[in-house]
Amino acid sequence: MAKIRSITRDQNHDDASIRKKIKTCDPWSDLNHDVLYLIMMKLGVIDFIAFSGVCKSWRSFAVCNKNYFMVSKPPMSISISTDADENKCYLEEFEGRKLKISLPHSDYKTCVGVSCGYLILFGEKSNDFWLVNPITRHEFHAPFSFRNVSFYSPCLGAILVFSPLISGWVFVVFAIYYHKIWFVIASKQEWTYVSSPFRILDLHAFKGKIYTLHPINRLSEVRLFPTPKVTLLKIKNSPIPDFNYPAFVSFGENLYVMDRISEHLSNIQEINFSKMEWVSREKTGEEYAFFLRNPEQGVGFIRIESWADLHSQYGKYYFPCKSGEDRFFLAKMWYFFHDCFDASFLHQSVKTC
């Protein structure tokens, strides 16, 4: 019996020592940043969201180092259920892992684009827009106030853009072959528009400015504030060859125009703003990975990115094209994770639904 008491006392002493050691250990929030970085870079996109929500310290670390993480991760393909009773969105990583997300208010609506991490849903019958961020789950409603204007989803395009002049986000809508651009400040419900002298083929936000593309390769700059205006830019030369269905695409410091039709994807021209001229991409010798949105889903969503070993990562999306070493990847829609936080403070200026 004395021996048992002795063992019990020893066990209690050991347990107390262990508890003491645990209490004196540094908390998770004080984990060495070098170790945190190694952990973060091993995570997938979905796990990174959970990682950033562990504690304030980890969130601060994730925000400060998110650019390093983002550029190492390829985009995810998006598929949205067409069943009005399901209202689900699926984001798929290149490893095949899927994230299923509920999309409120998505019934009888069409996704017409992705901008700053938000899926842009449009209802033809209700003539309104719902913007939903599938990662942050933030959403806001933008009912279209021009009741005499009706859009057809496959011809519709929309973007979110930050305006430094008003220090706020602006939701911009356009339709192919129309002469008007409609926009609304995200924190308000007052729509207005600006007229273009030419039909609009595409619209793109690039380095804090908005550009429109018109027939015969005309290019304009759009100013929304303080007075809405579309100004035709004078370009010295014309791109050769001509485009059948031109669209903007940007990468880093460069803005390009390319053809939406897959047979002519190698027709790419850069816009040199310092010299105000078109430059053939053949002269630059650059090679990229192109992520294209299925044209059947509406206005072609096109993006240029660069990651290592893209062919092995996206073999199931890859399709051949006569354009050297470039890689082209086709999906119904692409979600670029690093855009998810571009409008992270958007919820501060709009009413959450």
UniProtKB/TrEMBL annotation:
Q: Which UniProt keywords apply?
A: Membrane, Transmembrane, Transmembrane helix
Give TM regions: 156-178
What InterPro entries does the record point to? F-box-like_dom_sf, F-box_dom, KIB1-4_b-propeller
Task: Report domain KIB1-4 beta-propeller positions.
Answer: 99-293
Where's the F-box domain?
A: 28-62
The uppermost taxa in this organism's lineage are:
Eukaryota, Viridiplantae, Streptophyta, Embryophyta, Tracheophyta
- Its recorded name reads F-box domain-containing protein
